[in-house]
Amino acid sequence: MPKMKTPKSVAKKVKITKNKKAIRRGTGQNHYNSKESGKVGREKKKDQRLFRADEKNVIDALPYVIGK
Per the domain annotation, does 31 fall within a domain? Predict the structure, then answer.
C-alpha cells in the first residue's frame, strides 16, 4: 500500500500534543492591537485548544500522528 499524503494546510495550523489534543493559534492578532491593554495582548498570544468536535476530524486527517 502506498504512503498516505498529509494535508499540509492542516498540519501547519494545528499541533497535536502527546495526549492527542489539538492546539491552534488564537485569532485576532494581526493588527489594531496597540489600543488594547497588555492583559488582552497576552491572552491573545496563548495557544488554544481546538473544539473537541473538530479534534477527531483533524487527527483523522493527519495520517502520521505519533501514537496513532
Answer: no
Q: What is the mean pLDDT of the chain?
A: 88
Contact 1, 53 (CB under 8 A): no
Beta-bridged to residue 7, according to DSSP, are none
Count structural domains, the chain: 1
Range of the domain at 45: 1-26+37-68
pTM of the model: 0.71
In a domain, 51, yes or no: yes
Residue 58: CB atoms within 10 Å = 19
> DSSP labels for 5-66?
PP-HHHHHH-EE-TTS-EEEEPS--SSS-TTS-HHHHHHHHSEEEPPHHHHHHHHHH-TT-T
